[in-house]
Amino acid sequence: MDSSSEPLASGSLIRQSYRCTQRPNHVFSPPPAPCIEIHNLSYAYPDGRPALRGVSLNVQPGDKVALVGPNGAGKSTLLLHLNGILRGQGTVRVMGQEVAEPYLSRIRAQVGLIFQDPDDQLFSPTVFEDVAFGPLYAGLAEDEIQRRVAWALDQVGLEGYAERISHHLSLGEKKRASIASVLSMQPAILALDEPTAGLDPRTCRRLVRLLQELPQAMVAATHDLRLVAQVFPRTVVLDEGRVVADGPTADLLADERLMEAHGLK
Predict the structure, then answer these.
(1) Around Cβ 224, how many Cβ atoms within 10 Å?
(2) In the predicted model, what is the mean pLDDT of residues 2-30?
(3) What secondary structure does DSSP assign to 109-178, as a single string?
(4) Are 162 and 198 contacting, i.e. CB atoms less than 8 angstroms apart?
(5) Spatial contact of 57 and 244, defined as CB atoms under 8 Å apart
(6) DSSP state of 262
(7) 25 falls in which pLDDT band (50, 70, 90)?
(8) DSSP 3-state of 222
(9) Are 60 and 66 spatial neighbours (Cβ–Cβ below 8 Å)?
């Protein structure tokens, strides 16, 4: 009998079986689940005018995604669907959970929404109270609230501001305090609406550094293409409520025809 047809010894069988069941990390590691999943989302304003038309996109943990487009493209409307402030037709999931009434409190703890105007977000007498608001109403212990407020203020460079009066802050300081009020809830996702609107160049640079350093997944609606280039590796172009482009920021910003066609240049 030819030796190639002889049965393998039991030790050889064990070794071969072991080799066949090995799982090299670079081959079998599954991709992370998206932290945001949007499928075929449509929304119309109360007057019947469509704002979103069949929007679909996914965001992975840690991704930083810019939403750009002309006024009225649907950017801010899309952000407001991430924590259920607006509810359209289609599917929106956050951290694997559908954005629906029974789960809204849990989802809103995971999605930190930062409004364009910080005065819409800062309503307490002091910075401490604004930043502590979320943890306090989440029922956290006092020492944990103190720890989170101190940590969040440190993250945005507002150490020593806890007892400052919120409405006496500069616009840039208010923007950072708004971000701190969201970070104190330790969300997985930040949703930012025009984060650099109204800021002077120095304050913009400080905010850019902060956004670059924060580890959360981010989705930002903005007209500031310099901010987009500096902070967001991925860009989604919206126009008339539709996704018209989705890809690497450098590629999209270099596409002059695309930029001009959608009011971005």
Answers:
(1) 19
(2) 46
(3) HHEEEE-SSGGGT--SSBHHHHHHHHHHHTT--HHHHHHHHHHHHHHTT-TT-TTSBGGGS-HHHHHHHH
(4) no
(5) no
(6) T
(7) low
(8) coil
(9) no
* Beta bridge mates, 97: 94
Q: Which residues of 159-197 are buried (b: 16+ CB within 10 A; e: fewer)?
A: eebbeeebeebeebbbbbbbbbbbbbbebbbbbbbbbbe
H or E element that contains 28:
helix 25-28
Confidence at residue 27, expressed as pLDDT on a 0 to 100 scale: 58
- The single-letter code of the amino acid at 132 is A
Structure tokens at 204: 């913009």
Q: State the residue for tokens 């995604």.
A: 65
Can you list the domains of the chain with their CATH numbers? 31-115+181-261 (3.40.50.300)
Q: Look up residue 21 and give its two tokens.
A: 């069941």
Predicted TM-score of the model (pTM): 0.83
Count of CB atoms within 10 A of residue 15's CB? Answer: 12
